[in-house]
Amino acid sequence: MQAAASDYIIEVSGLTKTFFGFAAVKDVDLKIRRHSIHALIGPNGAGKTTTFNLITKFLQPSAGLIKFNGADITSLRPEQVARRGVVRSFQISAVYPRMTVRENVLIALQRPLGISYKFWRGDGAHRTLDGRVDELLDDVGLLTYRNEPAANLPYGRKRALEVATTLALDPEMLLLDEPTAGLGHEDVDRIAALIRRISAQRSILMVEHNLSVVAALSDTITVLAGGRILAEGSYETVSRDPRVVEAYIGGVDD
To answer: Among 29, 109, 141, 186, which is 20 to 30 Å from 59 by CA?
Structure first.
């Protein structure tokens, strides 16, 4: 059955990005269903991160159209897109190492409320947010670490903390850039379970190199190669596509 336009939270058409005459992304058409996990994969240099940066507006497209909830966001700045509910994480964990786990989440919670300055005044106004802080930390398995300096966390738990700070912004659309990169097996399983859990209330687009995670989590997979879409569908569909198999020879992912 054909999906209605309202079934899609993100709609991208003709997305193109050139750098000094080189097309890193060329004529990409992409639709992300609401409340789904959509993975973007491909070999080295496929254009995954560039596509990710274009959708979140960290790069401005050379051509094409990007819609979120039916509204054109192509010309918006990253902070404007984030305020609409499109929030991303990064490959490298981005936390404040000298602050506690609790303080990292607290700062993120205050941003949408416009009260971040009160955190530094120490007047206790931020205490009203403590309940929500604990909820978010519990969601990502960090409640017992709430008073620990972020610098002391193992790498996998720093990634979990980054997810918590991202969720603190209450995004409708969450974009995860290599969420399991650099993690050991136990941490990969923990983060994968976390992604599955938070997907119940959010739409997720992720760039991910770990194909076992992609297979376990993704409703839809888009394969990029040479800046273009090579294949799209379920893991079973794309993994059997001869073009996908050929594209992955000599490398797995960037």
So the answer is: 109
